[in-house]
Amino acid sequence: MVGGALKGARYGLRDWLIQRSSALLAAGYSVLLLARGLWAHPHSLAQWQGLFHPLAMRLASELFLWSVLLHAWIGVRDVVMDYIHAPALKLALYGLVILLLATYGLWGTFIVWRVL
Amino acid sequence: MRVGSRPSGQAVAGSAARPRPIYLNLLAIRFPLPAVVSFLHRVSGVVLFLALPFALWLLEQSLGTQEGYARAAALAAHPAAKIVFGCLLWAYAHHLLAGLRLLAMDLGFGLERRAARRLSAGILCAGLAAAAALAGAWLW
After folding, report:
1. Whole-number pLDDT of residue A7
2. Which domain holds residue A106?
3. Which of A78, A79, B39, B139 lies 20 to 30 angstroms, CA to CA, from A72?
4. How many structural domains is chain A composed of?
């Protein structure tokens, strides 16, 4: 196409797909954890740790963690985009959010794999 | 003043001089239910984002040591903390349900006005009910 037909950054479809698939993954994990929690009904540290202990559960938790972080990035970016119009402030906020989410990712990974 | 209560541009006898709104006064607009659900979806999303470090901290504490577990349990027993946890449970439940509504809309469901209203009312109620049930099961 020549002319004005190809304007925009064209990251819309990719972000839409990431937002939706990460949401489904997180929703699935929520149901899984809720079911396990209701089933086991942990009342001690050992039982509480046992909920997150199996390898499959750790992998699921890690996937959940990164799904939530990617999902949060797209959501918060959209909110910032809607309300903050000064370019410098907008970019600064993007940077801050990325830094925070990356930190949460490393922190969460540490928690997931540390469980005894 | 209600904005948009009459199709704009339609001349009504005697009210031709009726001033049209030149700005959007959020307090004057009556929001339809889907708009309320959608707005709360955004609000709950921001709340959950802000709650992330506290959730991670609590998880780290409670899963780490016996002292941390006891500290987390003591915190969860505090009345003020229960209110905060209850609100966060609602934010999670509402965000999840309102998100499923968006997925349904992607697939073409719930677009017609009556269906959209009914679905939105259902989501508002279900979100509150889910939060109340979870809070009742774990916090009280």
Report:
1. 59
2. 11-114
3. B139
4. 1
Q: Which domain holds residue B130?
A: 33-138
- Torsion, Cα of A68, A69, A74, A80 (10° steps): 120
**A53 touches B at CB < 8 Å:** no
Whether B3 is covered by a domain: the verdict is no
Please report whether residue B40 resides in a domain.
yes
Distance from C-alpha of A51 to C-alpha of A65, rounded to nearest angstrom: 16
CA dihedral A83, A85, A88, A91 (to 10 degrees): 50
Taking an 8 Å cut-off on Cβ atoms, the answer to whether A76 and B46 are in contact is yes
- At B1 the pLDDT is 39
pLDDT at B9: 45
- Looking up residue B108, the CATH number of its domain turns out to be 1.20.1300.10
Query: For the ranges A2-11, A45-54, B6-15, B96-105, which has the lowest average pLDDT?
Result: B6-15
**Per-window interface: B 32-51 vs A, CB < 8 A:** 42, 45-46, 48-49
Is the predicted ipTM greater than 0.95, yes or no?
no
Distances from the Cα of B124 to the Cα of A76, A79, B36, B37, B97, angstroms? 22, 22, 9, 7, 9
Helix or strand holding residue A17 (H, E): helix A12-40
- Provide the number of structural domains found in chain B: 1
- Answer yes or no: is A5 within a domain: no
Which of B60, B64, B99 lies at the smallest CB-CB distance from A23? B99
